[in-house]
């Protein structure tokens, strides 16, 4: 058995955590030889509910879980942290503007970034899930300046899984044979699901799946609005599929994968995206929490307006978030 890995999960009393914790505890993410110490952070008002989650984890009698620690203290949560899975975020309330949501969450991710900077291991790997995930990750990366930005990612795998599964259903094949379906940009309804490089084990996609009307009228809006469709049907947001995507993201990032996967990562200028912006790119994962943006999947002319739109939305979010967080002189 390896040394225990200290995994901090925030928003641990929430619905994604409830679906995710069994994946972590069973070894489905970090491997069945990897013991873990779970540190569960949630706000003070959620501590009673969190205690119930801990009881259920205990009742699971998971051999790999060596310690479970609950807290509402942000500094305590990140002490010696190896992996941080940041699900906790301020929820969007009825009538709330996206900008207000952005600013509420920017303050949360600033505080968590500072705590990670001070208390986590320098080798920590961070996955941001709480929305608006891309900009929360950018804020966190700024305030966790001791941590290499390549160690901080956000989740777009749910969008990639949705798009891949949609195509597999259309073709009546297993999602495992559909490759190179990408979702670019922001985890919002401006994201650009892109089939230009998609293939199956039988070769390129048939023409009817590449037809511009089909893409414009059906495929793209269905994927962009999938989260809202789940909320409409379930009266709750995606949790099972989100937890599954978090597990996929972490497992691939740590174990490596042959496939190209979507991750929201800090732009190094690739594809003309401004440096520092957290953008969903196609990535190769090499294992042990390393990845590289794959440079050779340019979008076509059809995709360009979609990319411009999602890119501009992220630039605006960045400006709004940092205008309130940073002194004017440093902007
Ligand atoms: N990136 C993605 O693909 C994706 C997909 C689905 C959901 N999400 C987002 O993930 C987040 C979690 O979703 P959920 O369904 O579990 O929500 P939820 O409301 O069920 O749980 C959120 C939890 O976070 C806690 N929380 C709030 N503020 C906190 C803080 N400052 N510190 C620690 N914990 C805090 C809440 O008390 C709650 O227990 C939401 O922001 C949601 O929009 C992202």
From TrEMBL:
Enzyme kind, highest EC tier: oxidoreductase
All copies of domain Lactate/malate dehydrogenase N-terminal, residue ranges: 5-151
GO biological processes: malate metabolic process
Entry binding sites for substrate: 92, 98, 131, 162
Residue stretches making up the Lactate/malate dehydrogenase C-terminal domain: 157-323
SUPFAM superfamilies, alphabetized: LDH C-terminal domain-like (SSF56327), NAD(P)-binding Rossmann-fold domains (SSF51735)
GO molecular function: L-malate dehydrogenase (NAD+) activity
InterPro entries tied to this protein: L-lactate/malate_DH (IPR001557), Lactate/malate_DH_C (IPR022383), Lactate/malate_DH_N (IPR001236), Lactate_DH/Glyco_Ohase_4_C (IPR015955), Malate_DH_type2 (IPR010945), NAD(P)-bd_dom_sf (IPR036291)
Catalytic residues as annotated in Swiss-Prot or TrEMBL: 187 (proton acceptor)
UniProt EC number: 1.1.1.37
Chain positions recorded as NAD(+) binding sites: 42, 105, 129-131
Gene3D superfamilies membership: Lactate dehydrogenase/glycoside hydrolase, family 4, C-terminal, NAD(P)-binding Rossmann-like Domain
Database matches in Pfam families: Ldh_1_C, Ldh_1_N
Key words, A-Z: NAD, Oxidoreductase
Keyword Transferase attached: no
NCBIfam families: MalateDH-SF1, PRK05442.1
Entry similarity comment: Belongs to the LDH/MDH superfamily. MDH type 2 family.
Protein name (record): malate dehydrogenase
Species this chain originates from: Galdieria sulphuraria (Red alga)
